[in-house]
């Protein structure tokens, strides 16, 4: 009788093990199917139907994402990508001299616009990536040369891109050439303040009172070190909840 019960118990255990294996297999198959569906969905999400609107939106997104760090980077260096010979280099701050031993070395607004344009022209291709999201749904993609034009306004930086794109599908042909974006940073305002500071330095042969900054709409920090002084103009009033814009420049008196 005991042997019979042991046999029944062993059979029951075997049946339970088989059922458990079947259940695990079913769960694995369901999970694998779900994973395949998710992967397919993710892959499809990177396929964009090629229309004039979608191409323009994609390129303008890249234009914004590239121009934004350009404005921040160039502002920290006094308006330059590559610093001129008359620059100050420290462990934390590398920027250009605006007042240099009695000489006015401040860059023009146009030259800073050109620096931003050059930065964008040299790096925009990384984001655009040959319009890869459109390739699966396009027969031919022809990309022309692009050029960038930057306009620094008081309250924002306007970027215009000329970039001929011709894209063909089985049913349509799409042509787009011009794209724009606006960076909501008050670079023009800060430049005007920096120019006022530099003019004061020129008049007073490299000296300036801290009271001179009282009416500025931005924060100012003066960092003197002997004959050298580093100036920081910091604007917290940025659009789209962006980080503060920090503009550095320096002076050295005789």
Write a short abstract of this structure.
This protein has 5 helices and 10 strands, in the order ααβββααββββαβββ.
Description:
By secondary structure, the chain is α+β, with helices and mostly antiparallel strands. The chain has 2 domains: 1-38; 52-252, no CATH class. Helices cover 43% and strands 27% of the residues. The protein is built from 5 helices and 10 strands. The protein has helices spanning 2-45, 52-76, 109-128, 132-135, 187-203; strands spanning 87-89, 94-100, 103-104, 140-143, 147-152, 157-168, 173-183, 219-225, 228-235, 245-252. Strands 1, 2, 3, 8, 9 and 10 form a 6-stranded mixed β-sheet that branches. Strand 8 and strand 9 form a beta hairpin. Helix 2 packs across helix 3 (109-128). It is elongated and about 75 Å long. Mean pLDDT is 87; it is low at 2-6 and 30-46.
